[in-house]
Specification:
4 helices, alpha+beta, globular, twelve-stranded mixed β-sheet
Length: 231
């Protein structure tokens, strides 16, 4: 997959009632066990639908921007995957990614951005956080991040998770990422901390895995009066 969902999930290997934690085993090697479960979970994931909530905080102004909606995903090998994200509150935006190309459509502005899913425009809409929440290949995680296990924690809804901190080994657009993984190996929440200490949190709830998703929902039909911007 491309970087937007390259490491799983993405991609969204994005139930989710925890299975029993293998206490003896995970106490001895928690990080190894978590990465193993993430890897196995994504290999078994054929499709995903979920509710998604995003909370972006400006550390200087103390302002919090909250958005929510739904996400649908059909994983695939390499760049061959499909994703649709519908932000519905407090405003409507549609984001679709198919085979490394994206469309970001804002109906009330009659405007759409199109281009590579590596785009900064897409990352500003939550792409960085989604990219991290979908990481599942343990070899790539170990190669690109210093991984720290921070213990077991409950997230929204009382769901028990493992908490990992990922610090990029090479220069990145953020300082580090915190990720909360359930006992099945599913990343449910991620928090990106930028270099200026702004944060971006994405939470997945109400997950439906391996359900039938029609392929045509990933095609965004733009009205004729839409202004299309490459970027």
């Amino acid at each position: 997959m491309n970087k937007f969902f390259r490491y799983g999930f993405t991609a969204i290997a994005l139930t989710f009632i925890l299975g029993a934690f293998a206490a003896e085993r995970t106490q001895a090697q928690p990080t190894t066990e978590i990465l193993k479960r993430m890897d196995e979970h994504y290999k078994a994931l054929k499709s995903l639908q979920a509710n998604i909530a995003r909370e972006k905080t400006d550390s200087q102004l103390g302002e919090v921007d909250k958005t929510s909606g739904t996400i649908s995903l059909l994983p695939g090998a390499g760049r061959n995957f499909s994703m649709r994200l519908d932000w519905t509150e407090p405003r409507t935006e549609i984001i679709s990614v198919v085979n490394g190309q994206y469309v970001l459509y804002t109906p009330n502005l009659k405007q759409a951005y199109t281009g590579s899913s590596e785009s900064k425009q897409l990352n500003s809409k939550g792409g960085s956080a989604l990219k991290v929440i979908g990481m599942t290949k343990k070899e790539e995680l170990k190669a690109n991040y210093n991984i720290e296990y921070l213990g077991q924690e409950n997230i929204s809804g009382g769901i028990q998770t493992w908490h990992l901190k990922l610090t990029p080994k090479a220069q990145a657009e953020y300082k580090f990422a915190d990720i909360w993984v359930d006992g099945n190996g599913m990343p449910l929440q991620v928090k990106i901390t930028q270099s200026n200490n702004d944060t971006d949190v994405i939470l997945l709830t109400g997950l439906k895995k391996n359900v039938s998703i029609p392929g045509n929902i990933f095609k965004v039909s733009l009205p004729k009066d839409t202004k299309v911007i490459k970027g």
